[in-house]
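User: Hand in any protein.

Assistant:
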Amino acid sequence: MSKINKLFSVRKLYNTQMTDELFVKAMAENCRYHYRHCKEYRDILDSFDFTPDQIKTMDDLAKLPFIPTLYFKKHRLLSMPEKRMIVKVSSSGTGGVKSFVGFNVGTLWRAFKMVKRVAKYHKLWSARLTRYVIFGYRPRRENSLGAAKTAYGFTFFAPAASRIYALEWKNGEYSLDLDNIKSKLIKYSKGKMPVRTMGFPAYTYFLLRQMKEEGLSVKLPKGSLICLGGGWKQFYAEKVEKEDFYKLAYEVLGVDDKHIIEFFGAVEHPILYTDCRSHHFHVPAYGRVIIRDVDTLEPVPNGTPGLVNLLTPIFGSMPMLSILTDDIGILHDEPCECGETSPHLEILGRMGIKDIITCAQGAEELLNQFTGGNT
C-alpha cells in the first residue's frame, strides 16, 4: 500500500501526533509523483532549488514551495489528462475568477474515506428521514461550483425527505429567496421530521436576523442541526461572533450550540475541518497547517496570527500539496475541553490578494515568478 493510501486509511481522525512520520512520507511520495508528471510544477520546484527528496521531516514541509490559491485561478497545473478527472469543480470566484480543480478516481476514494470517518466521529449519519434546507445553490448541470456539490453531497448523511435551496436559478441567474426558506422552516417546525440546514453562514445569519426583527420564532423538531460551510465570502463585514450567532439561532429556531456544526475547507484543499463540541477546528490526520508571517511568509509559532498554509497529499490529479490561502488564522495547541490533542485552527478573517501583495513584497515576488509578472 502506498504511504498516501495508508495515511487515508488511518482510523483515528485527529491522531496527528502519531501520524507525523507517515504524513511526511506521504507528502514526499505525492511530491515525487507530481514532480515527474507535471512539468509546470517541476519548473516551480526547480526555481526554488527544491526536490522531493528533501522532504524527510515535518520541518522540511515548511520549506516545500507553497502555491497561492490565486495561481490556480489563473493557471491549471495538471498531473494527468483532464479526461481522467471524473469530477471537476470550481471555487466560488468571489472576485470573478475561479479555480479549476479536477478529481481522479484515487483522489475521490481517499476523500470518500475521510468524509465517512468525519461523519461517523461527528455523528452526522442518521437513518431518519430528514428535511434539508440549503443556504446555497440549487444544483444545475452547468454549475461546477464546489460549494454547490459539497452542499448537495451533505444531504446524503441522512435520507432526504425534501431539499430546498436559498439560491434558485431564475431568468438566467441565481437569486436569493429567503422568504421561501422562512415559510418552509415555519412549516417544518410543526412536523416531526428533523431539519438540517447547510450552507453559507452569511445567508443563514441574514434569515435568522430577519425572523427576529419580524418577531418570528419557532422550535425545530428534535434532532435538527444547523450546519455552516463556505465562509462569509464577500460578507465578512457582516460577520458576527460565534456566540452571538449561537444565541440568535436558539432564539429563532430553538437550536442550541451543541447542534450547530461548522466546516472549513477550500476547493483547492478538500480536507474537512469540522468544529468539535467546543467549536474548534482540530487539524485532522490527513492534513497539516502552517501559519506564515504576512510580511516575510516565514512560519510563525503557534498562537501567532498569519496567512493560512494548508498541506495534504490527497490529490493524484493536480499538485496541490501545499497551498497558501488568503485566510488569516491562528493555530492553537492549548488543551481543548473536547479531549482532542490535535492543534486547532482559528480563522480570523480574509485578505484579498491585493492586500497581501501590498503588505508582503515576498508574496508579490513569488506570484510574479509563477505568473510572469501578470498578477
Q: What stands out?
A: Residues 45 and 134 are 41 Å apart (CA to CA). Residues 20-37 form the longest helix (18 residues). Residues 353-367, 369-375 have pLDDT under 50 and may be disordered. The longest strand covers residues 160-170.
